[in-house]
Amino acid sequence: MPEAMQFDQFAGDYERILDRTVAMSGENSAYFAEYKARYLKSLLSPSFSGKALEFGCGVGLLSGFVKKLLPRVQIDGFDLSTESIRKVDSALTNQGVFTSVSDELAHDYRLILVANVMHHVPVEQRSDVVQNLAERMSPGSILAIFEHNPANPITRWVVKRCPFDDDAVLLFPRETRTYLMDAKLRLVRHDFIVFMPRLLAGLRPLEPLLRKIPLGAQYVMVAEKHA
Question: Which one, of 152, 191, 148, 194, lies nearest residue 170 by Cα?
Answer without folding.
Answer: 148
